[in-house]
Amino acid sequence: MGIRSLLRRLGWHRNPLRRGSDRVEAWLNAVLLITLALAGSAMAVGTSRGAYRAEEKAAAWDRTHRFEVWAVLVSKPAAPQGTAQARWKAPDGSPRTGPVTAALSTAAGAWVPIWVDETGAVSTAPPHHSPATHAAGVGAVTLLLVAAALAAIWLFCRRLLDRQRLRTWQDEWLEVGPRWSKYR
Q1: What confidence score (pLDDT) does residue 148 get?
Q2: Which of 3, 25, 96, 121 has the fewest CB atoms lying closer than 10 Å?
Q3: 129 CB-near residues (< 8 Å, 6+ apart)
Q4: Strands 111-117 and 66-73: what pairing?
Q5: Is there a contact between 50 and 66 (Cβ–Cβ < 8 Å)?
Q6: In 40-184, where do the E strands start and end?
Q7: Domain total for the chain?
Q8: What is the pTM of this model?
Q9: Which portions of the chain are predicted below pLDDT 70?
Q10: CA angle 49, 53, 54 (to 5 degrees)
Q11: Do 151 and 157 meet the contact criterion of CB atoms below 8 Å apart?
Q12: Does any domain span residue 171?
C-alpha cells in the first residue's frame, strides 16, 4: 500500500465530489490517529512504569520479609492436606515448631523447605512473577483501552456525520426527485 492509497483511504484526496462532511471525517481520522500515537503511547509508558515500580517494591518487600528455611519433620504427614509437625530455626536463630505442609510420601525425620516471615512463623512462598512482564501487560492493556475509547469516539462521530449526510441527501432528493420521477 502506497502513500497515495493510504491518504485516499484516510480521506485525504483531492476529489471534486468530496463533501464538507468528508473533509470533517478526514480531519477526525487524522486527529484520532495522532491522539492514539501520542497520548496512547504516553499513557501506556506511564502506567507500565508505575506498575513496574509497584511490582519491584512488592518483590523487594518479599525478599526482606520472607525467608526460605529447612525444617525437619517430627511426624509423618497426615492425609488429606499433608500436614505434619516440624522443627526449624527462625531467621533470628530461635528454634520454632509447628505444622507445615509436606508430601504424603515424606517420612518423619526428612528435611523439607518452608517459607517463614521475619518472626519465624510459617508463611506462603513469595509469588514468582516478573515485574517487567507485568508492566508490559499493563502497558498493552492501557494502549488497548485508549484505542477502544478513541474507536468509540470515532464511531459516535461517524454516526453523527452519516445522519447529517442522509438528511442532506434526503433534502436534495425531495427537491430534485419530483422533476425526474413520473410518480408524483
Answers
A1: 97
A2: 3
A3: 55
A4: antiparallel
A5: no
A6: 66-73, 83-89, 95-101, 111-117, 122-123
A7: 1
A8: 0.69
A9: 183-184
A10: 115
A11: no
A12: no
